Each structure stands twice: as C-alpha cells, then as structure tokens.
Amino acid sequence: MNASGSAASFTDVRQVDAGVLNVGYVDAGPPDGPVVLLLHGWPYDIHSFAEVVPRLVAAGHRVLVPHLRGYGTTRFRSDDTMRNGQPAALALDTVAFLDALGVPKATLAGFDWGARTADIIAALWPERCQGLVSVSGYLIASQESGRTPLPPPAELSWWYQFYFATDRGRDGYAKNLDAFAKLIWRTASPKWAFDDETFNRSVASLHNPDHVDVVIHNYRWRLGLAPGEPQYDEVEQKLAANPSIAVPTITLEGDANGAPHLDPSVYAGRFSGRYEHRTVSGGVGHNLPQEAPEAFADAVLQVAT
C-alpha cells in the first residue's frame, strides 16, 4: 500500500446462494488451506482487506471475504424478505455462507459490523470458530443496553445513529450517500490520508439497492426504535446475556480511532480463553485492516495456529 492508501481491486468476485442471500465474495488461496473469514464494517466494503488477503494467502490460508447484506453484489433472494440489519441476522448470514461453501470451521476476523458478527459467532457457535480477531473488542450488545443513556460526550460520538432515527436522516443518507461515507471515513480515521481512488472503489459497494434499508434498520434496531424478526429472537436473547468468548482471541485498537469505542480494560473479562490485546500505533484509525494490514494479518496468523 502506498502513502495515500491505494491498493489493487479484487477482480474475481464470486456468487453463492446462502440462506436468504445470494452472497458476493472473494475466495483466494489454496482450496484445501485452513480457512480465514474476513468481515467488513460500515460504511466500508471488502476492499478493507485488499492488502490483508495476499499476506494470509502467502501463509497458506484460504481466505473468504463476503459482502455483507446490503453491500456490493450481495442481494436478497426474495423481494419479500425484510431488509433487516439486526446483529443476529448478520451472524446467521455468515453461518449460512460457511455452510453454503462447505466450511465447517474458520478463523474469523473483522472490524465494526464485521467484528460484532465475528464476536457473535465465536460466542454462540464456537465450534465454527478456530480463532478470533476483533477490532475494538467485544461488541455484543442488546436492544435493552442500547436504550440506556450514555454520558453526553459518548452520545455525541453516536450522532449519526440519532440522525438515522429520523425520516430526515434516512432521506439525507440516501441522497448524500457518498458524502456521508466520506465524512465517516474522515472522522473515524482522522490521520488516514486515503485518496479518491481508494474511497471510490469502496463506496461503489454502498450503491446496493438494499443498503439504505439495511443500515437504517440496523441503527434504529439498536435504539429499540425498530422491531426485529421473530426467527432471531432466541439468538438475541442469548446475546443479551453477554456470553463470554472462549476461543483464542486477539483484540486490536488503532491509536487514532475516531469512532466510538471502549477502553480495552472494559471488555477484557469477556474473553475467557487465550486472549491478548494489541494497540496499533502510527495514527491508525477505525478501518484498521486497511490502514495497518500487516498488524491485522499478523494477529490473524497468531490465532489461526
């Protein structure tokens, strides 16, 4: 990666039916290698891992990088399926994706929405998780916890969540999608000098017909302002108990993360197995795998063994 943050694009994006989705994904490396699954966040896409994938492939891993629901070439298989963004839905999407590819177990790694999804699978389906790398740590929460007021400075950092709770916010996000994403990139990673090529490559993935609906539902659900779907109730009940994570885990945090995040001391106790936290220095922000691919890949290789 050069100083401006450019990297090569993924040129081979495949499609597979998995659960309620037809998932767009990258599949790199030896087909019989130990599997690593990389999960992106909002408002980013699979290219957050463009410089991570070659490092993992060089170490002999098969690397899978799916577009989440509402991103890139991933589509809902039915017009009748709710464009649901609740965490349980994204987690079960990921389990269905692994099932569709015949992958019984993988090392999971991600950031933002992707880290939350990886955390959930590691907690509830540890038999599917070889190891875990989670940027910003333990991100499992519930609607009940989302209703709890935070101190004013913390609430301020979640300004977009409250904006999305309004019809004006939904319309504003849909109308100004690119500008909104660029603002989040800049505030979440204030020291990352990404260039237009890098941004434009990823923001194209947000121009998905379901993206706005999924994102708005995700943030409204968190505040208890939008219902989920009954088929996810059992999973959400388990997550509300803040289950511990016993698989080998490394949590990461950039030293210049401008997005809302907790101090590692707050969540360290949630990890009951082999555990390590690493702070990545050098002005690294929220999109850690793209800003510090070597550090991210190194953590993945550590938990994958």
Automatic annotation (TrEMBL):
A GO cellular component entry from the record: membrane
A Pfam family the protein falls into: Abhydrolase_1
Annotated GO MF terms: monoacylglycerol lipase activity
Residues annotated as domain AB hydrolase-1: 34-166
One GO-annotated biological process of the protein: acylglycerol catabolic process
Alphabetized InterPro entries for the sequence: AB_hydrolase_1, AB_hydrolase_fold, AB_hydrolase_sf, Epox_hydrolase-like
PANTHER family: HYDROLASE, PUTATIVE (AFU_ORTHOLOGUE AFUA_2G14860)-RELATED, MONOACYLGLYCEROL LIPASE
UniProt name for this protein: Pimeloyl-ACP methyl ester carboxylesterase
Source organism per UniProt: Micromonospora chersina
